[in-house]
Amino acid sequence: MATRNHLDMAERHMVTNVPTALPDETVKDVLNRLIAPKPTYDTTAYIYIVDEQGVLLGAVSLKDAINKPHGRKMKSLMNERLVYVRPFTDQEVVATKAIRNRLKAVPVVDVNKRLLGVVPSRKIFDILHWEHTEDMLRMAGLNAKGSEMRGAIKSGVLKMSMLRLPALIVGLFGGVFATSVVEHFQASLESQIVLAFFIPIILYLSAAVGTQSGTILVRTLATENVKLGKYMLREMIIGFIIALVIGSAMFGVSFLWHGVFEVSVTIGISLFASITTATLLGIFVPYSLFKLKKDPAISGGPLINVIQDIITLTIYFSVAGVILL
To answer: Which of 17, 67, 175, 203, CA to CA, is 20 to 30 A from 264?
Structure first.
């Protein structure tokens, strides 16, 4: 989640004309207001219980209020364990709280817990859509922020080119560096040219595993509280299993295809090591960005992919150098 401006805060999305009630009012009193001619409420998902100073005390869903005896007082029905946000709470936090607590609307209060308004369900859906769009575009490497990012899809040709080029230029230089890594290990390639045949698949599989790990973590960070130690252990076990299966499979494919045991061992071990490393990188980078209050979605951009390619090539040819030379 990146650093935001005021346009991405809860206050931008809240509505202020919401049904409220005093604790000692009856259900009948409140429902009479709700069904009055030409109701003007912006949302009626909940009835918010406030004191004389407007301090939020609790909430009652409209459905619960309708189904209770009309003589009951609102304070006897209200849920006092409220989830609420401040005006400057990030919009993604608002949406996350709504999802975790299955809320149709999220109240917004000031420092004294006075009710200022609520973020209704339609705004929560809008926020989720905007955040998802931003994450996908950042993972594609677009260089923009906030409203500029959300409007990127409809940008003109020149504007879209300028948004996409920076990450790709970084990737270009990274690719040149990756090529120099291959050149550095020229002796390994010359001794066993078959190693070159497996470079594309090793790069692809390592990048795919890293992208999987990173994407899953980005979405988890957006909706859950993550304990890094426990999460990393789980992902490392998953990465180990994937690396073992794919490494073993590629060892078998290489040996059946070319019949050179040493080359097959090189490919199997390299894949195992690079996939394990990709899993670690896929977890570490987005989590580090999250802790630095940057958007972890940018970890899926071209820069990280180039870094992963360089690491994978270095592992591949280093293993080849040990086993074949």
So the answer is: 175
Please work out, in degrees rounded to the nearest 5, the angle formed at the alpha carbon of residue 29 by the alpha carbons of 23 and 31. Answer: 110
How many angstroms separate the CA atoms of 250 and 206, rounded? 13
pLDDT digits (tens, 9 = 90+) for 63-116: 899 988 989 999 999 998 889 999 999 888 898 889 888 899 999 999 999 999
pTM above 0.70, yes or no: no
User: What gap in Å lies between CA 160 and CA 303, rounded to an integer?
Assistant: 19
Burial class of residue 115 (count of CB atoms within 10 Å of its CB; 0-12, 13-18, 19+)? buried
Tokens representing 184 are 């550095």
Polymer length of the chain: 325
Beta carbons within 8 Å of 62's beta carbon, 6+ residues apart: 19, 34, 44, 45, 46, 47
N-term to C-term CA, the chain: 47
**Cα atoms in the 13 Å half-sphere on the side-chain side of 92:** 21
Best CA proximity match to 134, nearest among 303, 294, 308: 294
Q: Give dist(CA 101, CA 253) in Å, integer.
A: 49
Burial of 194 (0-12, 13-18, 19+ CB in 10 A): middle
Q: How far apart are the C-alpha atoms of 196 and 145, rounded to whole Å?
A: 40
184/203 Cα distance (integer angstroms): 17
Q: How far apart are CA 49 and CA 26, in angstroms?
A: 11
- C-alpha closest to that of 49 among 12, 77, 7: 77
